[in-house]
Amino acid sequence: MAKVRFGVVSAANIGRKVVIPSILRAENAELVAIGSSSDAGAAFLRESGLDVRLHGSYEELLADAGVDAVYIPLPNHLHNEWSKRAADAGKHVLCEKPAALDAAEAADMIEHCVARGVVWMEAFMYRYHPQWAQVRKLLDDGAIGELRTVRSVFTFTVRDPANIRRRPELGGGSLYDVGSYCVNVARWMFRRPPVAVTGISQPSPEGVDEDFLGVLDFGSGQSAQFVSSLSQPYRHHVQLLGTQGTITVPQAFVLRSDDVAIEVTDADGRTRSVTVGGDDEYRLEVEDFARCVLEDRRPEVVSHDDTLWNMRTIDALYASAREGRAVRL
User: Fold this and answer.
1) What residues have CB less than 8 Å from 36, skipping those under 6 apart?
2) Which residues of the chain have pLDDT under 70?
3) What is the residue range of 60's domain?
4) CA dihedral over 133, 173, 12, 83, signed as positive or negative
5) pLDDT for residue 27
6) Could you tell me if 74 and 8 are in contact, meaning their C-beta atoms sit under 8 angstroms apart?
7) What is the C-alpha separation between 225 and 79, in angstroms, rounded?
């Protein structure tokens, strides 16, 4: 089987702990190199025992002719620059979310990659977990009638002021980091962008949004509400409210290979549990990206339009929070 040869730009935690293991498990991908300007890359290779090339800079990694594609888990403010530099080097790009700091940056980055003939995809891995196919089937089968409201929560605690999530100059903030999932799932479930949004932000001492409350108006009486936070306990769940019942997804965004249960409550308040077999959403994401590379096609599960509308919605939410008014898209 043909395989896409991956290099990882930096030795960031998410790459070391989650994505690299998934690349190693993927059928159509292989890890061949890591680029790290710190000692973290060498330490990781020593501890993991992986036999891959270690480059002392991101530039050296991009110059490696044996690398077909790169995974970019860099801080948000660097996604645009290094996606474009990777494209200039002829490397395909799997880039962590959020795509960029705003929609203009995201559009610039995507257009640059398309012009260079490389595949670029935003890494919203949760979409690949099989529980969401089951949720969509339930919706399409009319299990809760017409979908009217999506409620979502994604919160966790980050106290260290030096953490990149708390540094405004690096693209920190709860909306970028975890609220982006809530925006994404609402748009995905309604299959269209909102027509207007309202946002309320609670700033941290460092100047990022520590807590964010968002309301998305999809028109026709359909809406979404979400909470994201860097100061609350770890939790992530989604509720889909319909005219005839409710679907609750208790583990919405970060999953592993264990079976999961979706709760379906009918109009009379009776609840049944729907069990879905677990799978590795990160591996499935890597394999789909690799198929796009091998088949020379643009991503569809997380399309370029999907990325751009997510960033436009986030831009509007931040503008609403700054200006204290609803913002139309």
Assistant:
1) 10, 11, 42, 44, 54, 55, 56
2) 14-15
3) 4-124
4) positive
5) 97
6) no
7) 28
pLDDT for the residue numbered 50 = 85
- On whether residue 301 sits in a domain, the answer given is no
Q: Residue 161 belongs to what H/E stretch? A: none
Alpha carbon separation from 298 to 68, 240, 288 (Å, rounded): 16, 30, 11
Bridge partner list, 225: 151, 215
User: Is residue 152 exposed (0-12), middle (13-18) or buried (19+ Cβ within 10 Å)?
Assistant: buried
The predicted pLDDT at position 47 comes to 82
E-strand ranges in 4-79 read 4-9, 29-35, 53-55, 69-72
Question: Between 79-88 and 103-115, two packed helices, what is the crossing angle to 10 degrees?
Answer: 10
pLDDT given for residue 78 in this prediction: 97
pLDDT of 257 reads 78
- φ, ψ of residue 270 to 5 degrees: the values are -80, 130
Q: Of 280, 228, 225, which Cα lies nearest the Cα of 97?
A: 228
83-99, pLDDT tens digit by residue?
Answer: 999 999 999 999 999 99
Q: Tell me: do 68 and 144 sit in the same domain.
A: no
Q: Scanning the structure block, which residue is given the tokens 């999961």? A: 260
CA distance 312 to 320: 12
Question: pLDDT at position 15, please?
Answer: 67
Record the pTM. Answer: 0.96
Q: How remote is the C-alpha of 223 from its chain's centroid?
A: 21
Residue 140 CB: number of other CB atoms within 10 A? 8
Picking from 124, 144, 173, the residue at the C-terminal end of a domain is: 124
97 is catalytic: yes
- CA gap 89, 116 in Å, rounded: 9
Domains identified in the chain, total number: 2
Which residue among 3, 17, 97, 137 is the active-site one?
97
Determine how β-strand 245-249 pairs with β-strand 231-242: antiparallel
